[in-house]
Write a structure and sequence with these properties.
Strand content: 15-25%
Helix content: 25-40%
Number of helices: 15
Structural class: alpha+beta
Radius of gyration: 23 Å
CATH architecture of the largest domain: Alpha-Beta Complex
Strand order of the largest sheet: 12-18-17-16-15-14-13-20
CATH superfamily of the largest domain: Naphthalene 1,2-dioxygenase Alpha Subunit, Chain A, domain 1
């Protein structure tokens, strides 16, 4: 019997008002329970529907530790299936993406399934005449995830039936996704530029924490972004400012800048930095873009859309969205001390190509395996993962600007260096980890 599995009070005790226990990051049992409970009870991002534009198109991915297939069904809706043949358990879709046509075919024994998972055909069917196949689980086809929601192209699913609706889980936080889509003159996004993937030898929650940690950039990134700025400042007067420097420079802004950015805290662990200002607020205007937005939305609406320059939005449990630069990062848990990071970029349909160029450059400079800035953070994560095994201390502090009673408040805006959003995430973590019910 595990220390935590049958003891919800022990899990709740790991999250205090101003600190969390190191076991959240290093304990293998906690990691396994997260896969069974947290990632089953929350609405988790699966993919974007532009990745499966035609019937039969599919991508394979994971929700927690569950292998799934996102597929465009014949009725043009997007479905999510557990990637497992009900016969011998083989993963039916072995490629990362492709088009399966009108059905999936298991590569082991050629059992076939429609793109909604329902059974289609079994070879040598006569061999099952007296075997009771129709009464077996194997006759039901590939298990379909019942709770799937497509929000303006962003596809989420919840593995465990019941619980909060999509709208209740996300609430007002969906405004970040809406703003990113609205930045297209046509109101549409497309995944573009592929995906950057690399692993970090740390717990996934460290990366989620970092997205709203505004007290580290001027420290951790001084030697990278800071050096880039110093080299630029030494350039001859009149030298055009490179796009790379424009993207790097805000990372070493002073504490006051980040305090004034402010943070908004939503319910269920969601929140964002960049309420009043942002690292993405002062980019050079792209010729023709504002005009195309005004033509699509009118002057007042276009200005409102473009003035919303949120920095990092956390969608609990494990994605971060940058609306103004059109990127989305997924922090995929592999083990208690291993996380796969995926960084996706999007094209604003109908917008000038220069915007996609900036998005792709940002992703390469900040989120790539070859990134300079990203590796500053990676070293801190890995040092933390190692340091938390020290028996000298047991608790991780998240007390900055704590206010008694804050846990009952929602949709609040506060100082940009407040750790309230981190506390918000851990309160949500404890609740979903201790709710009753069995994962699907």
């Amino acid at each position: 019997m595990g220390h935590y599995r049958d003891h919800p009070d022990a899990i709740r005790a790991l999250v205090r008002e101003r600190e969390v226990h190191r076991d959240l990051f290093i304990d293998p049992e906690i990691h396994q329970l997260e896969m069974e409970r947290l990632f089953a009870r929350t609405w988790v991002y699966v993919g974007h529907d532009s990745q499966v534009p035609n019937p039969g198109d599919f991508i394979t991915t994971t929700v927690g530790d569950q292998p799934v297939v996102m597929v465009r069904h014949s009725d043009k809706t997007v479905r999510v299936l557990h990637n497992r043949c009900p016969h011998k358990g083989v993963q039916v879709a072995g490629e990362a993406c492709g088009n399966t046509g009108k059905f999936f075919r298991c590569p082991y024994h050629a059992w076939t399934f429609k793109t909604d998972g329902s059974p289609l055909g079994v070879p040598l069917r006569k061999g099952y005449e007296h075997a009771g196949l129709d009464q077996c689980e194997a006759s039901k086809g590939m298990a379909a995830v019942q709770d799937v929601h497509n929000h303006r192209g962003f596809v989420f699913c919840r593995l465990m039936p019941g619980g909060e609706s999509f709208a209740d889980f996300f609430g007002d936080s969906l405004s970040t996704l809406d703003n990113m889509v609205d930045r297209s003159p046509e109101g549409r996004l497309e995944v573009a530029g592929g995906v950057l993937r690399y692993t970090h030898a740390c717990n996934w929650k460290m990366l989620v924490d970092n997205q709203t940690d505004t007290c580290h950039p001027m420290v951790a990134h001084e030697s990278s972004a800071g050096t880039a700025v110093k080299v630029w400042e030494a350039a001859p007067e009149g030298t055009p400012k490179p796009m790379a420097v424009e993207l790097f420079a805000p990372f070493v802004a002073p504490y006051e800048f980040f305090e004034n950015m402010r943070i908004r805290v939503w319910k269920n662990g969601h929140g964002h930095t960049g309420v009043s200002d942002s690292l993405h607020a002062a980019y050079t205007p792209v010729p023709g873009y504002h005009e195309s937005m005004v033509a699509a939305y009118g002057e007042e609406r276009a200005r409102a859309i473009l003035a919303d320059v949120r920095h990092n939005t956390i969608y609990f449990p494990n994605i971060m969205v940058k609306g103004p630069i059109q990127t989305l990062r997924v922090f995929k848990p592999i083990a208690a001390d291993c996380t796969l990071v995926e960084s996706w970029t999007f094209r604003l349909v109908g917008a000038p190509d220069k915007l996609l160029e900036r998005t792709l450059m940002y992703n390469r400079l900040i989120n790539a395996p070859t990134s300079v800035v990203g590796h500053d953070d990676q070293e801190m994560y890995e040092r933390s993962q190692q340091g938390l095994h020290s028996r000298g201390r047991e608790w991780v502090n998240v007390a900055r600007l704590y206010e008694p009673g804050e846990e009952g408040r929602e949709n609040e805006v506060t100082n940009g260096t407040n750790e309230w959003q981190m506390r918000n995430q851990y309160r949500a973590w404890a609740r979903y980890m201790t709710e009753t019910g069995d994962a699907a």
